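User: Could you check the structure of this?
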Amino acid sequence: MEPQKKCSPFEGAHRKGEEARKEGKKKDTCPYLDHRAVRKNNVTFSRAFIRAWERGWEEADTDLIERRERKRSKPWNKGR
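Assistant: Sure, the predicted structure tokens are below.
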């Protein structure tokens, strides 16, 4: 049995975005909140998690659209 590859937290957020799109959820259902830093020295990665999730959602959406287009363009589907 192959050991499970450990992924980064951002890869996990990306994967969750893909899964959300495949489940039919809308893009505005991102579970990550935008925590902005109040002081200059504070850094938060919340927007990076949001962007990773959205990117996963968008890529899955593009994939679904392309699949539909390929299915429509097949000659045996003409006239349906």
